[in-house]
Structure formats: C-alpha cells, structure tokens
Amino acid sequence: MAITITAFEKSPDGGRGLARDTRVRWALEEVGQPYAVRLVSFAAMKEPEHVAIHPFGQIPTYEEGGLALFETGAIVFHIANRFPGLLPEDADARARAITWIFASLNTVEPPILELQTAKILEGNKPWAGERMPLVMDRIRERLKQFAARLGDADWIDGDFSAADLMLASVLLRLRASGLLDEFPTLAAYVARAEARPAYKRAFAAQLAINAP
Ligand code: GTB
Description:
binds S-(P-nitrobenzyl)glutathione; alpha+beta
C-alpha cells in the first residue's frame, strides 16, 4: 500500500530536521518503506482538504490506502506496529518501548516546547528575562532524570527502537540552546541516533526540498 506524508513546502528551519515530518520520514527509513511527500504551504494547511486529514491544520500527516493519520506519536507508533524493525517482539519489552514513546511526548517534550514559546512568542515581554531561567531549569530537571535512567547505555531499553527515535527527535531540538551539552551522555545519545543511516536519509530528503 503506497504511503504519502505531508511536509512543509518551505520549512522555517530551512529543512534542517526540526519540523516534525523528520520523525515520520526517519521511522519509514528505519523500516525500509518507500513514501511519497505532499508539500503544503501554511495557507494550504488551513484549507478544508487538509483539515479533513489533520483537524488542527498542521503537518505531518500520513496516508496509507484508506487510512489517514495525524500526530507524530501516533504515526510513528503505527509504522512501528505495522512494519518490523522498530519495536521488540517480546510483549513486555514492546510495552516498555511504547511507554517511552508516550514519555517522550507527554513528559520530556512539554518543557522543551515551553522554551520555544518563551523564546519565540514571549521573548519581548517585560517578564521574559525572569521566566527564561525557570523554563531552562525545568528542562534541566527532566534531562537529569532521563540521563540518570539512560546511564551509559546506547539506547533506552535494549536495542534501538521507536522509543529512541522519538526521544532523540524531542531532545535534538535543544541543541541550539546549549542545554544538551550540559549532559554529555545525552548529547552522545542524540549524536548516536543522528548517525544512523536511516536518520541521515530522512534528514537529507527534507533538506533537499528546502534547498534554494
Ligand atoms: N502534536 C503534533 C505532532 O506531533 O504531530 C504537532 C504538529 C506540529 O507542531 N506541526 C507544526 C505545524 O504544522 C510543524 S512541526 N505548524 C504549522 C501550524 O501550526 O500552522 C513544528 C515545527 C515547525 C518548524 C520548526 N522549525 O522550523 O524550527 C520546528 C518545529
């Protein structure tokens, strides 16, 4: 069944891996599934045709036959569930990996998104200088907890899985802030994930679209 995803026609980061279609591309590359990409402008995302697939008018989406999905967590989980390679066969290990997918989105990512809000939407507020250290400290606390669990392991629970794909995707957004470098084992974890051939292919494909 042919797979089509949506991505930014012109990504604000110039296609350098920060838009969330990267996660979906990466998952598809890991499981060796070819896919087509439909590029959408910011205006087109809000049109009824796209909103019928993505109720919040965003990217990415995922279509496969009659199935249409939105939300990267759900899409990556679907890919991992549908095709071998991204989730362990053992039922308990699989449940733990799924737990980490949820944790990446519900526990690790929220304070990281707060940083984007604090910088981009609230950076010029009179109280921005006071808020920023609080936001940074909340992220540090999460990173400390995650680094404690990861320890010296390569991946969070055995072999690389969709959990690591999601966790690394969430963490890599911190690189520009310098916070990741405060936790060398996490910086190494993200670097290890980005060194995977599947990630490199996903990154290159997104960058190619945005190349001038
Ligand atoms: N919870 C949803 C998911 O995980 O799929 C969130 C989807 C989402 O945030 N989509 C963004 C979007 O469509 C693109 S990824 N925004 C347009 C809109 O809402 O109108 C977020 C993103 C975009 C760009 C950068 N960047 O260039 O640095 C980083 C992250």
